[in-house]
């Protein structure tokens, strides 16, 4: 009986065109749109960047000149860290500007008449951002040092070893190991896309539950009068929905990695573990919504859509930095948002490898699944009807 019901449920899902369209085709279309929008940016981020060519126009004995040369000097091949930029000689500012116009260099550091150094660029891009961030850091650190000297009453009263400790922040930083190949920040969209696709499984369970609840369909009425156990029907529906969503997620991952050529930098098994748990959470959330709304399919679909899209937005589907913004202001929200948990698990695995952070997120998904399962079971067990 169990296997017959499971087989029937899978066939029922596959033959429902709108379910297959939303759970399989829509994520594929969205992945293609993402690739058209910023796929090349992601591929460029995968490439190892060479030092950024820049010119330095300043007095030879200035502090900024010596600091810039220390970061831009040629180092031995394979040294760590690699230089941020490569300083190109220029005899004058006019010559440097001509080199900038020709594309020989990406920016010019200019320090004149004792003023703060400034950066001159001809366009925006990743290379220009590297040069700008270096200058910003230098100016911030210079201001900190000058403020400390002013408060101390002169440089003779300053412990410069302490200043070095403050600027390096050794007391608050923790050493972490990144994977050899970087993960583009734009991959956040694809992490959230996988999470959204997994949560779409809530529609599957909402659709199937209408055949179990007596006041929602003739099939539900016949089922309520049959000797079949309700919990067995709920279990087979959940397993069937999870199985179908598992295959949909597998096709989506293969499409992104093999067809679009974008890598998650995470072994396939670990991706599927997260997305399958996410699909199970989506299925059980759909069952819970059905239990709360007495199986009204339209209402369940509307609530499921709102739940999925809000969770996906907060995890970075529309704005890639949204998950970090939430983490800064309301970190607890990221712990109860299944989409954010899935996205963080994939991000941490791609950036740092499979470690504690990844398994912590997996544990959170398991806890969510257990809570939703228990809640749904209790709610459905207590349902009764005055007349059938």
Task: Tell me about this structure.
The protein has 388 residues and is mainly α. It has two domains: 2-44 and 181-380, no CATH class; 50-172, 3-Layer(aba) Sandwich (D-Maltodextrin-Binding Protein, domain 2). Helix content is 66%, strand content 4%. Strands 2-1-3-4 form a four-stranded mixed β-sheet, sandwiched between helices. The protein is elongated. 34% of the residues are buried.
What's this, in brief?
It is built from 16 helices and 4 strands.
SSE order and pairing:
Layout: H1 2-14, H2 17-46, E1 52-57, H3 63-72, E2 85-88, H4 93-102, E3 107-110, E4 118-120, H5 126-152, H6 160-168, H7 188-199, H8 201-209, H9 218-225, H10 230-259, H11 268-292, H12 297-315, H13 322-329, H14 331-336, H15 338-352, H16 356-381
Parallel strand pairs: 1-2, 1-3
Antiparallel strand pairs: 3-4
Structure keywords:
mainly alpha; D-Maltodextrin-Binding Protein, domain 2; four-stranded mixed sheet; 66% helix; elongated
The parts where pLDDT drops under 50 for at least 5 residues are: 74-80, 169-177
As a percent range, the share of helical residues equals: 55-70%
Instruction: Give the amount of beta strand, in percent.
Output: under 5%
Rg over CA atoms, rounded to whole Å, is 28 Å
Structural domains: how many: 2
Number of helices: 16
The major beta sheet can be summarized as:
4 strands, mixed
**How would you spell out the order of helices and strands?**
HHEHEHEEHHHHHHHHHHHH
Structural class: mainly alpha
| Sequence of strands across the biggest β-sheet | 2-1-3-4
Count of DSSP strands: 4
Quote the distance from N terminus to C terminus.
24 Å
Mean pLDDT: 80
What is the 3D shape?
elongated
